[in-house]
Structures are given as C-alpha cells and as structure tokens.
C-alpha cells in the first residue's frame, strides 16, 4: 500500500528549454559581435558604391542633361550597371569579396582559383553580389542611422522637459515627466530594431553568398586538382625521405658495427668507417631539412635530386660498409630522361638498402643497362646476415618494395622481386625511356 501511495519521482528535465525574458531577447543582437561586423560590412558596401554612383551621375549630367526625368534615371541605371559589370569581372575583385565576406560574415567560402570555362552566368555573379552588397549597405546604413538618431533624440527631449519633434515628415509630441516615460523605452526599441536589422542583413548576405560568390564547377575541379597535386607532391617527398634516411641509417648501422670490430686491429679502417658515417649522416640531415622546409612552406621542391650520374658515389658508400658490390654499368646515360634517371637512382638505392639489411658482407650484384628503349636495373643478393645486426624484425614488413613498385608503375614500367632458383633474392625493374602512346 505504501508503494502504491508513494509519489513517483521524476528526474529533472535538464534539456527542457528555459523561456527567456522578452527584454534580453529583444536587445540580444546588440551584444553580439556579428551585429557589429554586419554593420561594418554594410558600411563598406555603401562606401564602395560612392565612386560608381559619382561616375554615373557625372555621365548622366553630361549626356542626358536635357532628357526627361525618366530617361535620365534609365541612363543613370545603365551606366551604373555597366560600371558594376566591368568592375566585377576580374577574379581579383571576386577574391577580395570572398575574403571580406569570410572575415566579416563568417561565410567560409574558398578563395577562387584560376580555371577555364567561365560562362555568361558566371560573369554576372560577382557584379550581382556587388549590387546586392551596395543595396543592403545603403538600406542598413540609412535605417540604422535614422533609428540611432531617434534613440538619441527621444530621451534627450524627454529629459529636457518635453517638446514636439519632427523627423522625415513625422511629428511626435514628447511630454515631460511621467507622461513621456515611453520615450526611453522607444529609444531602446529603436536600438533593438537597428540591431535586428543588422542581424537580418547578415543572414540575407550569408544566404546569397554561396550562390553568387561560391566556386563554379570548373573552380571546384581546379581546386581538387591542385589539392591532388599537393598531396602527390607530399607523398613523393615522403617517399624520397624514406629512401634517403632509410639507406643512410642502414649503412650507418653496418659501418658502426664494422668500426667497432676494427677499432683495435685496424684503427685506420675504423676511422674511415666513422668518417663515412659522418658524411652520410650530414647528407641525410640536409635532405631532412630540405623536405621539412618544403612541407612548411607548401612549395614545390627546387633543389637538384640524385640521378644515375650519382650512382658511383652511392656504390662507394655501400662498399665502405664492408659489403662487396659487383657493378655492371652499361649504356648511354645521356639517352635516359631526367625523370627516369631520378626514379631509377631511388629504385637502385632502395634495392641496395634491402641487400645491406638482408645480406650484410655478402656479395651483391648490380646490373644497370640501357637496352633499346628500356632502362634495366637488376640487383641480386643472398638471403643471410640481416638479423644478426638487428637490421630486420621478424614479421615486420617494410615499405621499400612498395615504394619501388609505385615508382615503376608511375613510369609505366615492369618490376619483379623475390627468391630465384638458387636461393638468392633478385629485384628486377624495367623502365621505358619513352612514355607509351
């Protein structure tokens, strides 16, 4: 029975909207930053209209002075529209409009980029936005000026004892004392109306901005292509950094192990190994600084990259690790295009790095040849020795061969890697010297 008569407890509904008092709701826009930014944006539109209005008035006064009033207005409108159309066509003008709208209206529109395919409709979008901005600007400035003047005059007249005031053809009697107590409330209402007008103008302009200032389909495609190029460049830089740092760390690890073994027996050879570590580490730091600088600035790399002409220096660094390299370099390197030469260098570098990891101090064979319209690179090594130095991890798969395959595929070449019949590991890459038609 007690359970039946017990009142049912309900948790308070914290999500239930609490009604706001009417006065703060009415004057809320007065306290918002959007209101001030909207009024500044409207003032900018009114100010921008002054030069074309002055030119249109001057042309109308000089050309259509003796015309009827209606024709003079038509002439003024035609000249003003022509000025807006001519002034709004440059992409720089539209870009400035977008930046100003993003800053004051918080529209978040992308800055336009150069793109082909602008149609007649696209050529009038920016002039239409300028016309809307100027019209809204004049309306907001004029009405808010009138409301602001009324908000200042009404309390002043009431505090001065009352008087009849006339504004824009309207005559209002403000009595003194308690009978004119409505004047301060009317002043607050004028300020609230001005604030709501600014907020409404911001809403109207935000609604129209995507249609008039938003990107065209061709601009969206151009922006997407630019973004794709940027990402592709960053991916290429990441691959370059992986190849360079990976090769340097692998060679430095092996050379450090060699130096530790030879420190007592052959100190001169140990010094050469340490000197090679210093040089290769400094080169890797230069590559790292260059790549990080490019990524920070967002620019395309301009520093010269390694090519097949640097292959002999690469082989000497590998030999300093104690690894025997049998190289067979044949062909006319002048026939190799620059892009193919750069990518072939990185492919060979990655192949030698893998050989150092998996076949330390075992002989490595390298054959690079220009045969017909193809560049062929083949690297072979036995599968021993990597784990002893801690250069490989069981179950860990590197990204080197993936990068090699991507490079060869981009150049429309052929690549194969794996064990062969004699138990050796072989990497073969064939790259065409000319792109396929």
Q: How many angstroms does the end-to-end distance come to?
A: 92 Å
Order of helices and strands: HHHHHHHHEEHHHHEHEEHEE
Helix content: 55-70%
The number of distinct helices, counting runs of at least 4 residues, comes to 14
Shape: elongated
Low-confidence stretches: 1-23, 386-397
Q: Which band does the percent of strand residues land in?
A: 5-15%
| Lateral arrangement of strands in the main beta sheet | 3-4-5-7-6
Structural class: alpha+beta
Number of strands: 7
Instruction: Please state the CA-atom Rg, rounded to the nearest Å.
Output: 38 Å
| Overall pLDDT | 75
- Biggest sheet: strands, sense, closure? 5 strands, mixed
Structural summary, described in words:
There is one protein chain. This protein is α+β, with helices and mostly antiparallel strands. The protein is 60% helix and 11% strand. The chain contains 14 helices and seven strands. It has helices at 2-5, 22-27, 33-48, 50-63, 69-88, 91-104, 120-123, 125-159, 182-213, 217-262, 267-297, 311-319, 338-358, 400-410, and strands at residues 162-167, 170-175, 325-330, 364-371, 374-382, 414-419, 424-432. The chain has a five-stranded mixed β-sheet with strand order 3-4-5-7-6, with helices on one face. It has a two-stranded antiparallel ribbon with strand order 1-2. Strand 1 (162-167) and strand 2 (170-175) form a beta hairpin. The longest helix is centred in the middle third of the chain and has 46 residues, at 217-262. The radius of gyration is 38 Å and the shape is elongated.
């Amino acid at each position: 029975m007690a359970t039946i008569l017990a009142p049912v407890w309900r948790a308070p509904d914290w999500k239930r909207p609490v009604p706001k008092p009417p006065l703060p709701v009415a004057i809320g826009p007065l306290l918002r930053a959007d209101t001030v930014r909207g009024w500044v944006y409207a003032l900018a539109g009114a100010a921008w209209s002054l030069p074309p209005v002055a030119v249109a008035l001057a042309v109308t006064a000089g050309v259509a002075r003796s015309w009827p009033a209606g024709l003079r207005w038509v002439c003024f409108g035609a000249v003003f529209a022509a000025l807006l159309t001519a002034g709004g066509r440059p992409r720089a003008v539209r870009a400035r409009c977008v930046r100003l709208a993003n800053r004051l209206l918080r529209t978040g529109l992308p800055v336009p980029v150069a793109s082909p395919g602008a149609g007649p409709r696209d050529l009038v979008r920016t002039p239409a936005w300028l016309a809307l901005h100027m019209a809204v600007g004049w309306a907001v400035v004029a009405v808010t000026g009138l409301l602001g003047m009324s908000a200042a005059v009404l309390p002043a007249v009431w505090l001065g004892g009352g008087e009849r005031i006339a504004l824009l053809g309207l005559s209002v009697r403000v009595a003194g004392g308690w009978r004119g107590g409505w004047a301060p409330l009317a002043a607050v209402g004028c300020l609230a109306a001005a604030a709501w007008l600014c907020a409404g103008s911001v809403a109207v302009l935000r609604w129209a901005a995507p249609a008039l200032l938003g990107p065209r389909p061709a601009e969206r495609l151009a922006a997407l292509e630019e973004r794709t190029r940027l990402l592709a460049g960053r991916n290429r830089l990441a691959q370059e950094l992986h190849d360079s740092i990976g090769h340097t760390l692998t060679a430095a690890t092996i050379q450090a192990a060699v130096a530790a073994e030879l420190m007592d027996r052959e100190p001169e050879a140990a010094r050469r190994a340490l000197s090679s570590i210093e040089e290769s580490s400094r080169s890797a730091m230069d590559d790292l600084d260059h790549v990080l600088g490019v990524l920070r600035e967002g620019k395309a790399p301009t520093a010269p990259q390694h090519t097949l002409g640097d292959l002999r220096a690469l082989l000497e660094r590998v030999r300093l690790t104690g690894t025997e390299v049998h190289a067979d370099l044949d062909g006319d390197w002048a026939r190799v295009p620059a892009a193919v030469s750069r990518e072939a260098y990185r492919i060979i570098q990655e192949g030698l790095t893998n050989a150092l990891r998996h076949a330390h101090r075992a002989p490595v064979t390298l054959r690079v040849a220009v045969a017909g319209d193809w560049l062929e690179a083949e690297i072979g090594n036995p599968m021993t020795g990597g784990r002893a130095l801690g250069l490989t991890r069981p179950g860990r798969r590197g990204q080197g061969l993936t990068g090699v395959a991507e490079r060869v595929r981009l150049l429309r070449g052929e690549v194969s890697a794996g064990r062969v019949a004699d138990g050796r590991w072989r990497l073969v890459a064939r790259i065409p010297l000319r792109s396929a038609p």
